[in-house]
Amino acid sequence: MDINSKFSILTPSNIVVGNNSVEKIGEEATKLGANKVLIITDIGIIKSGIVNKVKELLEQKNIDVGIFDEVKPEPHTDVVYNCMSKVEKENYNLLIGLGGGSVIDVTKAVSILITNKGNLNDYYGFNKVKKPGLKKIQIPTTAGTGSEVTYVSVLIDENEEKVVIYSPYLFSDLAIIDPLLTLSMPPKITAYTGMDALAHAIESYTSVDANIFTDALSLKAISLIGRSLRKAVFQGDKNIESRYNMSIASLFAGISFINAGCNAVHALALALGGKYHLPHGLSNALMIPYVIDFNLPGSFEKFANIAKALGEQVEGLSIIESARKTVNAIKMLSEDIGIPQRLRDINIKKEDILDLAKTAIKANRLLVHNPRLISLDDIVKIYKTAW
Ligand code: NAD
What we know:
The protein is built from 15 helices and nine strands. By secondary structure, it is an alpha/beta fold. The radius of gyration is 20 Å and the shape is globular. The protein starts with 14 loop residues before the first strand and ends with a helix. Nicotinamide-adenine-dinucleotide binds at residues 42, 44-45, 48, 73-74, 99-103, 105, 141-142, 144-147, 150, 152-154, 181-182, 184-185, 189, 193, 196, 280-281.
């Protein structure tokens, strides 16, 4: 252990975890002083019956409940403004984000815009938000983004570009992680979101800014995903243990990546997902093996640990041989859960690669954490290999 290691860790102030923990929502909302609550969600979550359940739990504590269900996957900024007008008109004193990362990110943005006023583009980038937002509880129904414990909100602006707000005021006042809420996730969304969590875990573990705290979370997340993602995808609501493990993996990887940083997988995936409007988890899944193959020499030891955490047989192998097993382990996992393996499989145009690389290289906030220095040429080569 490096006894000179110094680090600080940012997390939300309160995280409640466990099967059926959502039952505490009424009590927790009351503790936060709420008597009029807006549940922010989307149509998929309404259909799953989860919203009704949470609404009833709140009403049992005499809390007035409104519902805003217009969030769409990979949300645009206009949905934030629509939701904001409802909050202003109807005077809510607590927001509850109930859904996947899309819903949670919208809830964060509404919360800070209500109190800080102005336009969203006043707040893109780091620490531009001046004061705390309206109180918010975040309850994930997917297991992947970790957004319920991050201080990040990702939106798509009017130019169809991904924009990001980073501010400690985006942290939830309470995150409730109830794995049973993920049981209704269809296989494809389970697969995409699970690969998002894997990307967070691997990138934070191999980040040049990782520390002993983030390492512990990331490595545990990787091993949970290695043994649970296939079952979560293929056994749906029949395997509660695998859903529990995936929720914990997503939570651990979320805390880890906001403290250690994501790196080139996310830089290349965001460029791809932004241009082609792909689900975030799918873009990450497409890039992970190819970026890792490039990154291996930057951190053979850590990639060797990842191979072991993913269940690869590494006894008797050298560190370099073990590390190389990571790439294949991830390809097999991704293929097993039905994720396309090549950019061409989802109709990405080869002639777009240079443009994609030019967008990806601009994500310096991510690339500074990469375990291997990376140039525009390197990024072009990685996209070409992935194509
Ligand atoms: P999502 O929120 O976009 O949801 C995808 C679909 O899954 C929706 O149609 C939704 O209705 C459905 N769904 C979700 N939970 C369900 C359930 N339990 N049962 C049935 N259907 C369900 O998916 P996501 O991958 O969780 O979020 C992606 C978004 O999160 C992207 O916009 C991405 O940029 C963002 N993100 C944010 C952070 C962060 O830290 N802020 C991190 C990673 C990703």
